[in-house]
Amino acid sequence: MTAKSITRTVLITGSTSGIGLGIANVFAKNKYNIIFNGLEAEGSAIASSIAKENSIDYLYSPANAMRSAELKTMVDEGLAKFGHIDILVNNAGVQHVAPIEDFPENKWAQILQINLTASYLLTKYLWKQMKQQKFGRIINIASAHGLFASEYKSAYVAAKHGLIGFTKVAALEGAAFNINCNAICPGYVRTPLVELQIRDQAKSHGIPEGEVITRVMLQKQAVKEFVPVELVGNLALFLAGEKAGTLTGTAIPVDGGWSAQ
Ligand code: NAD
User: Fold this and answer.
1) I want to staple 164 with a disulfide (CB 3.0 to 4.6 A). Which of 146, 170, 222, 226 is the partner?
2) pLDDT in tens, 194-216
3) How many Cα atoms are found within 13 Å in the side-chain-facing hemisphere of 79?
4) Burial zone of 250 (CB within 10 Å; 0-12 exposed, 13-18 middle, 19+ buried)
5) Domain segments of the chain: what residues?
6) Looking at the record's lineage, which domain of life comes first (predicted)?
7) DSSP E strands: which ranges in 74-168?
8) Domain 9-188+228-260 has what CATH class?
9) pLDDT exceeds cutoff 90 at 10
10) Mutate to test the pocket of ligand 1, among 60, 66, 94, 153 (most ligand atoms within 8 A of CB)
């Protein structure tokens, strides 16, 4: 198989909302086969409408990242349909904002499972196939919070720092097999996850919701604008490219200058 004759297949977790949906739109426009995933009730309809609009082949899986068996089934179904899965975008994520002393233990476990452990599991389930075909692109959607901390986000910051660590190990182990692995570290992107946070942050900081955006969120960024999803999508597309193999093991900030300070 030459690179030109292959229609690449990308599996994007959490691709029926927010950043994942933005990434899916970019890959769809570039004619990739897409395995959509997400828990949105309208997930199947979202996936089919993007596929129709862009004339691409697709699969939608409602696999829940809390359950490893469902993730394995999603991979098996994808391999059965397309024969190969070439790019994995570990994007599904959840957040909870609370001081450590009040942080619910079940929320800690859930955040670690969805934001970190599920990424390891999917990488593991796809590894053999990527190794055999000597092509794999793994893109982990970490966060500026994979590089820096903010108060009241203990589980999220721990999970995202862990995800960057895992990214580096996968880069080392994948290098001999043309599998690259990189993390993208966005600043604030206005998605349903961030809308929820505005409410929670207002409670934790004891300030009105309107002030959370300027005083807490964008205060960290030099560019006082939310990061566009298209920017994250186009960076993911670049990292997924045929020639991006030597670009590996990185954690790339897309954060409006947050990390420049
Ligand atoms: P979002 O809430 O819009 O989307 C999250 C997606 O993950 C949804 O499709 C949801 O169904 C899916 N998901 C959640 N729990 C799941 C589970 N148990 N099983 C399967 N799917 C599940 O959020 P978003 O802002 O688009 O976040 C996407 C990723 O980007 C997350 O990893 C998040 O941490 C990261 N991120 C977001 C921002 C931001 O400002 N929005 C910044 C940095 C990083």
Assistant:
1) 146
2) 998 898 889 888 999 889 999 88
3) 15
4) middle
5) 9-188+228-260
6) Eukaryota
7) 87-90, 136-141
8) alpha beta
9) yes
10) 94
